[in-house]
Amino acid sequence: MEITLKEYTLLGLESYDDLSFKFEEELELEISKLIKIRPKLKNNLN
Q1: I want to staple 16 with a disulfide (CB 3.0 to 4.6 A). Which of 7, 21, 28, 36 is the partner?
Q2: DSSP helix, strand, coil percent of the chain (3-state; round to 5)
Q3: CA 3/CA 45 separation, integer angstroms
Q4: Which residues make Cβ contacts (< 8 Å) with residue 45, sequence separation at least 6?
């Protein structure tokens, strides 16, 4: 019988350091950039 090791990654459980950010604020800034609605898209929603 062969034993196989599996690595599972769960989103949201990594620390900012694991994600290669020096500070938590730096990570938060990048996240806010990603979720910000672009003006062009915002105009299309109205």
Answers
A1: 21
A2: 40, 0, 60
A3: 52
A4: 37
For residue 39, give both structure tokens. 């003006």
The tokens describing 6, both together, are 């599996």
CA 38 – CA 46 distance, rounded (Å): 13
Residue type, 9: T
The model's pLDDT over 11-45, given as tens digits with 9 standing for 90+, comes to: 667 787 888 888 889 988 998 988 887 777 777 77
Instruction: Give me the residue label for tokens 């109205």.
Output: 46
The amino acid sitting at 33 is: K
